[in-house]
Design goal:
The chain is of the alpha+beta class and 204 residues long. It has 7 helices and 6 strands, in the order H-H-E-H-H-E-H-E-H-E-H-E-E.
Length: 204
């Protein structure tokens, strides 16, 4: 068995980078080239953000730095550690919770960190890499481990690398890795006129 290719089955044409982005749990041991990893972070850098506040930060570790790799990995919940430890790169994202220009709370900070991570994920897909983002982390452990300042909140974890062989996963995870990708239909979340009323743009 080899790494699966799982392009999305879409209801309208979309860019191939988007259709080929997915979230594997099986990763190849092959290192991610430093120049590619830098390009991924550059893509994140150019995400849109409210007031151009750029509230994102990334704590990144590769297996070339095993001590810091382990420190990041141990901020994931145990289940996520079990498979993410095979990825060549792990990371944590964090959000600055205030606007730099006036010190007021930035209620869009998590949204904008998500945009930066999405840019990173799409650039990864362009290189044949994939990332798996995860909510299953221990934010307070990450704060203490890495000295994250009080005005920041740790948002998510990331495992990153070239997709690997699902045969290396436990049975339950292997089934999920090979299962068809699914999404809600457009009419389930694109509305017009009133909440819950599907827009004519997306009605079958």
């Amino acid at each position: 068995m080899t790494a699966p290719h799982k392009p999305a089955s879409t209801s309208a044409p979309i860019h191939h980078i988007i259709s080929h982005r997915w979230s594997p749990r099986a990763f190849d041991s092959r290192p991610v080239e430093p120049e590619k990893l830098r390009s991924l972070l550059e893509a994140a850098r150019w995400a849109a953000s409210a007031y151009n506040a750029q509230p994102w930060s990334f704590i990144v570790a590769t297996k070339d730095d095993p001590e810091n790799f382990q420190r990041v990995l141990e901020c994931f919940v145990e289940f996520n550690q079990s498979w993410a430890r095979h990825a060549p790169v792990v990371a944590l994202t964090a959000a600055f919770l205030k606007f730099p220009h006036n010190g007021q709370p930035n209620r869009y900070a998590f949204h904008d960190v998500g945009q930066a991570a999405a840019n990173l994920a799409l650039q990864a897909a362009e290189f044949g890499l994939q990332i798996h983002q995860m909510a299953g982390i221990d934010p307070e452990k990450a704060r203490k481990t890495f000295g994250v300042p009080p005005d920041y909140e740790v948002v998510s974890g990331i495992a990153l690398g070239y997709p690997g062989d699902p045969a290396a996963l436990p049975d339950q995870l292997r089934e999920r890795e090979l299962a068809a990708r699914e999404r809600k239909p457009l009419a389930a979340f694109v509305y017009a006129g009133q909440w819950g009323n599907p827009s004519p743009l997306v009605k079958p």
